[in-house]
Amino acid sequence: MASGKVAVVKARPWAVACFLLPALLLLGALVVYPIGYSVWRSLFDASGDSFVGLDNFKEIFTNDAINTALTNNLIWIVVAPTVATALGLVFAVLTEKMRWSTAFKLIIFMPMAISMLAAGIIFRLVYEQNPDRGVANAIMTTVNDTFADSAAWPDAQPRPDGPVEAQEDGSYVLLPPAEAGSPALLPLVAIPQPELEDAALAAVPEAGGGEITGTVWMDFTRGGGGTPGAVDPEEKGLAGITVEAVVDGDVVADAETAEDGTFSLPAEADGAQLRMTSDSFSAPYNGAEWLGPSLITPAIIGSYVWMWAGFAMVLIAAGLASVPRETMEAARVDGANEWQVFRRITVPMLAPVLAVVTVTLMINVLKIFDLVYVIAPTASQDDANVLALQLYLSSFGTDTDQGVGSAIAVFLLLLVLPVMLINLRRLRRENQR
User: What is the maximum alpha-carbon separation in the chain?
Assistant: First the structure.
């Protein structure tokens, strides 16, 4: 070594082969053989006995369920990596300016420690329709109730065969016209007893001075008894219901029922038809139907972003640490604001890292299975379908066809390969610099 020459140890070929053999055997058993068998199996029918050529691949583009999976996979590839990478970039930049950046990074990255199955179970509960169980709808209903008035009696319905009739717009109309001197009785039913605990007893007002009076009440006596259509002693009045007097389609007067369910309208309401407005009986706002057909895919993508934004943040933060601070400071000295520094210096210099994160997430979402399978209920599973889930359903579901399932697996491999090759070429170019 004194001469300055570097000694090169030449290993014998058989020694190299012995060291590589275990890895090659494992690679062949876990990668090469499954790929080869999937390609071979995709050329045969469901039983595996008859050669069908490319018919199984034709099925991929003609089957409605698989076409839905293809469309959803396209949405996943475009939306999920983009949103996760963008959030990771924002988090990485913000943590540089935060005092408790380490704790913040830990919180954001923590979902990565949770398995896909566990995350799916968590978000299945988060997206529950019932606001008492689903966190997402609980937040939405709380905000809505803060700024919007809720209906007084959403469960109330007209008594069957009674004088009140439901209309298409959700309002309830008293069929006999109002008459001065004769109290208008508007009986309703179907209200749960717990909602009536704080309600006052119903009363029948005395008519006088040509006014139209009446009562809106719960026409039901607990334990049985009572007279249908009559205000009995133990029956409760319904407060807060708007009663309108309608003449030829025009509202001539309106009033709101008191605590005991009574109301009073001026004399011009004589002969009018009394209508209880629909906003007194509209169903309460229960949030969005996250697990329904229209929102199921965005909802699952949201859970994926929740898990993988931390992964993107950590990689981008590592790249951000290597960005020369002198360049940023020089831009600030020249008068650039923080947004200009971020857009014209930080993002361009992080472009290689952003590309790595985006490509990695694209490969990952092509294989997404667990979240879709766990979160999507049976009724919405077809709408949330993706290729990996369809592969499982075709191979092991009720209508088993392993020929089609193998064709989907080969097709997924063909989709992943170009993305992987692009990533490898980019890494080689960086290593040659």
Answer: 124
Residue 4: pLDDT over 80 = no
Contact 303, 120 (CB under 8 A): yes
pLDDT recorded at residue 432: 67
Helix axis angle, 64-95 relative to 55-62, nearest 10°? 70
Do residues 251 and 265 make contact, with C-beta atoms less than 8 angstroms apart? no
Distance CA 358, CA 361 (A): 5
Inter-residue contact 178 to 225 (CB < 8 Å): no
Higher-pLDDT residue of 284 and 366 is 366
Q: Coil, strand or helix: which one is 50? A: coil
Pick the CATH number of 41-132+290-432 from 1.10.3720.10, 1.10.357.10, 3.90.1150.10, 1.10.1670.10: 1.10.3720.10
3-state SS assignment for residue 217:
strand
Amino acid at 16: V
Distances (CA, A) of 187 to 195, 227, 229, 238, 275: 16, 11, 6, 10, 13
What is 18-32 written as a DSSP string? HHHHHHHHHHIIIII
The residues that bridge with 201 in the sheet, in sequence order, are: 236
- Residue 5 confidence class, pLDDT cut points 50, 70, 90: low
pTM for the complete prediction?
Answer: 0.77
Highest mean pLDDT among 150-159, 206-215, 363-372: 363-372
Q: In sequence order, what are the residues at sequence separation of 6 or more whose Cβ sits closer than 8 angstroms to the Cβ of residue 405?
A: 391, 392, 394, 395, 396
pLDDT value of position 11: 62
Calculate the alpha carbon distances from 374 to 108, 136, 303 in Å: 23, 17, 12
Question: Nearest to residue 220, comparing CAs of 210, 234, 208?
Answer: 234
60: amino acid identity, one letter = I
- For position 27, what pLDDT does the model report? 86
Domain boundaries, the chain: 41-132+290-432, 157-280
Buried b (16+ CB within 10 A) or exposed e, 354-369: bebbbbbbbbbbbebe
Edge-first strand order for the sheet with 184-189 is 157-158, 184-189, 212-218, 262-265
Question: Average model confidence (pLDDT) for the chain?
Answer: 87
Q: What is the dihedral of CA 127, 132, 136, 138, to 10 degrees?
A: 160
Element (H, E) at 376: none
Q: How many angstroms separate the CA atoms of 275 and 283, rounded?
A: 18
Quote the tokens at residue 298: 């965005």
Reported as half-sphere exposure (CB side, CA atoms, 13 A), residue 277 has a value of 16
